[in-house]
Specification:
five-stranded mixed β-sheet; alpha/beta; globular
């Protein structure tokens, strides 16, 4: 499988893998390391989790992506500094982030802090992944694939699910089969419906990017570990 889309879920990490032709595979993995080892060095893996972490101010990629998404901009959370990920509680994380960044973190950001830390640590110990794994965002990918139009409805609503599903079915012929199997194979307490479409659109975006996705911003800065503070998306309109 050459192109992987990954989204965090209650069960761990949900991955959609697309190969040549009509080949595809899906699974929920407990850890990101387990997922990577099961993928056998894909050409590109897009993941909906921050990779490049700030150390003094908000990331430019988040600010610019919010502007591009307009009404869906709230789906882009402010990213915590690396030190805040070591906190044992939300209150402590807020205190550390305010000291370093000048702002507290939201409870939504704290809820994914453990996953940010997991990926940050994993990348540090997995050099082979550092050039193949890129940060992306499902809403930015849907925006790009739909001709730079933000989605009209929240992904948590029935209308939002249908809107995104319709876009994907026009682009990838196996969309219905992938979604149907995921809904049947995994429990909703482990994998939400919107997680399925989020991972799938990232896999599709990786495939359409052919190794050369566009980036927000155009020239990303790097963090203290040399990782780009970017959000990537597929070039060109696909529907």
């Amino acid at each position: 499988m050459d192109y992987i889309g990954v989204d965090g879920c209650r069960g761990g990490w949900f991955a959609v893998a697309l190969g040549s032709g009509r080949n595809w595979a899906i699974n929920v993995h407990k850890t990101i390391d387990e997922l990577w080892n099961a993928m056998n060095a894909p050409s590109m893996m897009l993941i909906d989790i921050p990779i490049g972490l700030p150390d003094s101010s908000q990331r430019i990629c988040d600010l610019e992506t919010r502007k591009l998404l307009g009404r869906r901009g709230a789906s882009v959370f402010a990213v915590p500094c690396r030190k805040a990920l070591q906190a044992k509680s939300y209150r402590q994380a807020c205190r550390i982030n305010k000291q370093v960044m000048g702002k507290r973190i939201s409870i939504q950001t704290w809820n994914i802090a453990a996953k940010i830390k997991e990926v940050d640590t994993w990348l540090q110990h997995t050099p082979a992944a550092q050039t193949r794994v890129r940060e992306s965002h499902p809403e930015l990918c849907f925006w790009a694939l739909a001709g730079k139009h933000a989605m009209a409805h929240s992904k948590k609503t029935a209308q939002g699910f249908t809107e995104r599903f319709s876009i994907l079915t026009k682009i990838h012929s196996q969309t219905a089969a992938i979604v149907e199997q995921a809904l049947d194979q995994f429990r909703r307490k482990d994998l939400a419906r919107d997680d399925i479409l989020d991972a799938l659109v990232l896999a599709v975006a990786a495939r359409f990017s052919a190794g050369k996705p566009k980036t927000v911003p155009l020239k990303p800065a790097t963090d203290q570990k040399g990782r780009p503070m970017e959000i990537v998306y597929p070039p060109g309109r696909c529907i």
